[in-house]
Specification:
Helices cover about 40% and strands about 20% of the residues. The protein is α/β, with parallel strands linked by helices. A hairpin with a 3-residue loop joins strand 8 and strand 9. Helix 1 runs parallel beside helix 8. The longest helix is centred in the middle third of the chain and has 31 residues.
């Protein structure tokens, strides 16, 4: 399944620099607002040491990791919801992503102009939040007018939907995001149709200077306190460090550089792991001489759904799944030895796939 995350934030907070580093792309990163007008799109290969170890054992013709699509959305400003700074276009770009990566600037640098004159990540966050909320309010108000006309038919379910939509509107007008709105599931179809911006899961990325990437600084501490009631994850990344890593030729060079900084992994790893957690995703593997491959699915999916990610025919004609636990595969060293040890399980359509499962599907269409 394709995963798409959108990077948002005010102009000049380091979004495009981070995007370039994460995707090794070459998007324009300039020191003035609206350097990015159209969204830049790049793919990040998801790092997974388990895939590497399986490939070492199988020695396949091809190794295929899973990927995350990253969209660098142009910087929003006050008034974006009313079209300021090409705001309508930018907000439409956000509507298309699965999750939002909200980058806030947590570093001082006199050479990089801040659109509001000084560094204040909590103020920056409130600016972005407000614009997303204003757009959601507009979207919901337009839909509510149609729902009210529909409810004139007298159907109880239509009248209830109007009541719920009004409750959601009150929630948004109180400057609370749609993701925190408590509902019993009866609005799921409506929320899916509306695709509200503030309903999307969010990850906060504090872009810090090199010296603050491990322990943070006064900006990050203030910001963490500010968002603690949202129960959202906050991670620290230095876009400058990621830029340095991106131009290094070998893994050895990158790891040596990280070690010198006291880091154990690049920021891209933290970012991807956090996105997976945010969207409740896991990985399973297929392993054969032709290809060893990682596949992304939603946690708690059953075997037929997982098979459908490979091809819809696999789900339609699902018969069974042959499952090897990753640790067993590594312990015994090959599929044949796992089978000899009696560690390969044959599972039916009700099997819930677990993270790291090595699977082979039997199907008939």
């Amino acid at each position: 399944m394709a995963l798409k995350c959108g990077i948002v934030g005010l102009p000049n907070v380091g979004k495009s620099t981070l995007f370039n580093a994460l995707t090794s792309a070459k998007a324009l990163a300039a020191n003035y607002p609206f350097a990015t007008k159209d969204p830049n799109v790049g793919m990040i290969t998801v790092p997974d040491v388990r895939l590497d170890k399986l490939a070492e054992l199988v020695n396949p013709e091809k190794v295929q990791p899973t990927t995350v699509e990253i969209v660098d959305i142009a910087g929003l400003i006050k008034g974006a919801s009313q079209g300021e700074g090409l705001g309508n276009q930018f907000l439409a770009n956000i509507r298309e992503v699965d999750a939002i990566i909200h980058v806030v600037r947590c570093f001082e640098n006199g050479n990089v102009i801040h659109v509001d004159g000084d560094v204040n990540p909590t103020r920056d966050k409130e600016t972005i939040d407000a614009e997303l909320l204003f757009k959601d309010i507009e979207t919901l108000e337009n839909k509510l007018e149609k729902l009210k006309k529909q409810a004139k038919s007298g159907k109880k379910e239509d009248q209830k939907l109007v009541e719920q939509a009004n409750s959601l509107l009150e929630h948004l007008n109180a400057m609370k995001p749609a993701r925190s709105f408590d509902q019993d599931g009866t609005m799921d179809d409506l929320l899916k149709e509306l695709s509200l911006l503030t309903a999307k899961p969010i990850l906060y990325v504090c872009n810090v200077d090199e010296d603050s990437v491990i322990d943070g600084n006064e900006f990050t501490e203030t910001f963490k306190t500010f968002v603690q009631d949202e129960h959202a994850e906050v991670i620290l990344i230095s876009a400058d460090i990621e830029s340095e890593i991106a131009v290094m030729d070998t893994k050895e060079e990158r790891m040596e550089y990280l070690a010198e900084l006291g880091l154990t992994e690049p920021g891209v790893n933290k970012l991807i792991n956090s996105c997976y957690k945010l969207l409740n995703l896991i990985t399973y593997f297929t392993a054969g001489v032709k290809e060893v491959r990682a596949w992304t699915i939603v946690k708690d999916w059953k075997a037929p759904q997982a098979a459908g990610v490979i091809h819809t025919d696999f789900e339609k004609g699902f018969i069974r799944a042959e499952v090897i636990k990753y640790n067993d595969y590594i312990q015994y060293g090959s599929e044949a030895k796992v089978k000899d040890a009696g560690k390969m399980n044959v599972e039916g359509k009700d099997y819930v796939v677990e993270d790291g499962d090595v699977m082979h599907f039997r199907f008939n269409v």
